[in-house]
Specification:
Pfam families (chains A, B): FCD, GntR
Protein name (chains A, B): GntR family transcriptional regulator
Strand order of the largest sheet of chain A: 1-3-2
CATH superfamily of the largest domain in chain A: GntR ligand-binding domain-like
Order of helices and strands of chain A: HEHHEEHHHHHHH
CATH topology of the largest domain in chain A: Four Helix Bundle (Hemerythrin (Met), subunit A)
Distance between the termini of chain A: 17 Å
Shape of chain A: globular
GO molecular function, one term (chains A, B): DNA binding
Oligomer: homodimer
InterPro entries (chains A, B): GntR_C, TF_FadR/GntR_C, Tscrpt_reg_HTH_GntR, WH-like_DNA-bd_sf, WH_DNA-bd_sf
Number of strands of chain A: 3
Largest sheet of chain A: 3 strands, antiparallel
CATH architecture of the largest domain in chain A: Up-down Bundle
Keywords (chains A, B): DNA-binding, Transcription, Transcription regulation
CATH class of the largest domain in chain A: Mainly Alpha
Largest interface: A-B, 24 and 23 residues
DNA sequence: CTGCGTGATGTTGTACACAACAATAAAATC
DNA sequence: GATTTTATTGTTGTGTACAACATCACGCAG
């Protein structure tokens, strides 16, 4: 079903997840599952069995259900009695509203309680930019998604407004899967991937430059523009592909 | 502890909550508990026993825990192992960031997918305005909070952007308790209540007028201004009161 | 009288058995 | 042979017993 090459074994599961209190454990399981969903390790429509997950993480169904309940409240899965817990399917049109909101929030990060980036943070941006440059050399969809995710978290840390951070994160995780899913269906998959990585690299360079001089408002403006354009490109290519293959 | 006069029996519990599927039942319990928290039926710091709630709603602890988990994720309660589920305490300073965000989102409701109000919706606004006028005549803190809540939901229905609605609601329920809590501690409780109701009535009249001519951008601007000013008034009176009684 | 340890009590977290429900396949009936 | 009915299997939702943990009271030594 998925054109994304995934490996048989999923990363970071029952290894060193035991330590810490019960809250930390649940938080870690939550983070792992959310990441898997967003990187399409779990494809939209896939059924997640609670007991399978319980076995993998070496707990009972109870804490797993706690995690799945949160993922359901956040719109990433949907549990159906007697059937299973299904990873929600998504399409670009349904996510348009989320994108519109993300565009606005991106600008707010530079306005509401911006934190002046210190040397360490700037270094983190530069490191990420370097990773992105190796990505341009050897394009890979999954690596692209991962760098994109790290980049988001780094940007999100530029505001001290906690609720804004939380909400931006929520919306990010609702939308980020759509790129991998849509792109993987395209005929011109490799070409689109290369083009998108190039554009992303340019955006990142621009933003890192703005971060270096400490102008977070500019960062907000750049991000706003890029999120908006990224959505439009995605929608266009998705619709073009849909009409080519015979609509719906 | 609370200066708000509450009655012995809490409304809307085990009566007609049985009907519907399991999801609807959980949703209803959630709504009831959330409302109780926001109207200070459960005061900040109060301990909610899972088994007590389970008895009241005539279910086991399991679905109650499902609801409490969501309330915890939304920041209204916090479960502590071996202690209890405690209604989160709040103070005006901690909520400043939430208010800043709400101010921005209020404006977005008029911008993102605004829905032209039909006759029925306008009528709902006018009905609410009438309720507010009776409130001016006979001030009552709890009724004020309830009308405020209804007003919020009505305003929130003016955008078709679902994620924006959900997030606005989330932030609203995080902040709305602070007014009742702060006001109830004030020396000049009655005077502040009367003044606040008068201001609220004026805001409502302005907004209803803007709704009637269908200008949702203006609605957004008015709300933005009022949320902002309301917060400032609250913070000032809270701090003035704190210094008067000896800081802390 | 104070400080510390220890047991009793109460509450949430976990695990597990079972009920409710959905889907599929098999079988019976027309 | 097609269709309806029924049985079987698989999954989530619920209830409940028990474990883990925190708190408080009580006793006891200093």
């Amino acid at each position: 079903m998925t054109a994304i090459p995934t490996l048989g074994r999923l990363p970071a599961a029952d290894g060193a997840i035991q330590s810490g209190g019960s809250r930390e454990r649940i938080e870690r399981i939550y983070a792992v599952l959310r990441k898997r969903i967003c990187l399409l390790d779990y494809a939209p429509g896939e059924r997640l069995r609670e007991e399978t997950l319980a076995d993998e993480f070496d707990v009972s169904r109870t804490p797993i259900r706690r995690v799945l309940a949160r993922l359901e409240d956040e719109g990433l899965v949907r549990s159906v009695h007697g059937v299973g817990t299904i990873v929600t399917d998504i399409d670009i049109d349904a996510l348009e509203q989320v994108y519109q909101l993300r565009v606005e929030l991106a600008e707010l990060i530079g306005k509401l309680s911006p934190v002046r980036p210190d040397a360490q943070k700037i270094a983190a941006f530069q490191t990420l930019l370097a990773r992105c440059e190796t990505l341009v050399a050897t394009p890979d969809a999954r690596k692209f998604a991962e760098i994109n995710m790290d980049f988001f978290h780094l940007l999100n840390s530029l505001t001290a407004n906690e609720p804004l951070r939380a909400i931006s994160e929520l919306l990010y995780y609702q939308t980020t899967r759509i790129w991998l899913k849509t792109a993987s269906r395209l005929e011109s998959y490799q070409a689109v991937l290369n083009a998108e990585i190039t554009i992303f690299h340019r955006e990142m360079a621009d933003i890192v430059a703005a971060v270096e001089i400490g102008d977070l408002e500019v960062v907000g403006h750049i991000r706003r523009a890029h999120i908006s354009m990224s959505f439009l490109r995605l929608r266009d290519s998705a619709h073009a592909d849909a009409t080519r293959t015979g609509d719906d």
